[in-house]
Amino acid sequence: MTTAGTYIRFEEATPNAKTKVWRVVTKDGDILLGQISWFGRWRGYAFHANMTLPNLIFEHRCLDDLSAFIKAANQAHRSKA
Known about the structure:
The protein has one helix at residues 60-80; strands spanning 2-4, 8-12, 22-26, 32-39, 44-49. By secondary structure, the chain is α+β, with helices and mostly antiparallel strands. It has one domain (2-80). A hairpin with a 4-residue loop joins strand 4 (32-39) and strand 5. The longest helix is centred in the last third of the chain and has 21 residues, at 60-80. The chain is globular.
């Protein structure tokens, strides 16, 4: 499943896993910006930036989209428990 934000999109990488992973890519260039996956110490989903990209910069709409997506993923995960 793919979900689109303003300038980024979220592509589900593990559709059948207990804890899901989504690739975060640019809408127009398919550049991998990072991924959203489970982070056990925080007991929730978190964004893991692609550290191989120099000068990775996000503006407020991208950060809003990331935040909203992570909140929804955490709510969906907790509702299954």
